[in-house]
Amino acid sequence: MSFLFSEEYHKVQKNGVSPFQNLCAYLGGSAIQTVGDNPVTAYRQLVQQYAKIDGVTVDPKVASAEANKVFLRAPVSASLSGLWPRLIGVLLKRVPKFGFLLGYGFLVGEGEPGFAAATAASILSAPFINPVRMVEKQQRAFLKETGVEKPIMEIMREAAAKNFMPLLRGTIPLMGHSFASAVLGLVGQPRLQKYVQKEVGASGMFGQSATNLISSSIVSPIYVVVTNPLSRLEVIMQTNSIKGKAITTVEACKEIAADMAKFGLAGVFRGQGIGIAKAIVSLTLFHEGRLFLAGKFKERNIANGWEPPAKKK
Predict the structure, then answer these.
(1) pLDDT digit string, tens, across residues 129-140
(2) Residues 122, 165: contact at Cβ < 8 Å?
(3) What confidence tier does 169 reach under pLDDT thresholds 50, 70, 90?
């Protein structure tokens, strides 16, 4: 990622912003998204986590009831659980992911990120992202027993006792999750929004925010169907005690298979309804924030005369 420090990376391009400013807009949008969707993210994890209670796989309705109990018992703690790791993760997770995503396009001469960039970003960024997701899930994994989120330093001490290897639990399903997120959320949604803006927005009835919401609503169900089983694998592998034995990807897959055998597709897609709501909120907040910040950067570049010569009048 040495291109981050090159002079060319900080020059304003034809789209009105520099690649570095574009990265900052992506990071800002991600921070806005993280704060806005955290309560939904926390609730979804608990719904998936309580698929198994006292070693027994339970009906999805029972799991939802258990998640409700946790939120009713400590609504503020539950809603804010994992928020600090997620916000810190905006840098630790998003800089590598967006850096690889946007950097690939910069190096090969692409304008907007494409599917090849999404593939590179999902694979290369996974080792950076996974520890943050592990800490986030561990923070809220024991809310039912304690009523409060687990301190980050306690999690790190437990991980340090095992040479920090537990922080890599769930990396394999994360790669698949990250790939789907990049392809559908970071590449597919903006392209779909442009199409919707062209076809629907031409009437003047819908502005940028409305077409953003429409695009997110179309992409989100597809995204959740693809990623929900992968999210379940992550939850299974990352919410058991760090002090205990790690659950392998194969063992997690067997657990989901047993869930499906007992409860059908409802067992596989636990938390899907809330997942779709989360995805719509997340994608909309992310792209609204990203586009707002990118617009501010463009205004600043124009005011200072930094736009490319071809753009000058």
Answers:
(1) 889 889 999 999
(2) no
(3) very high
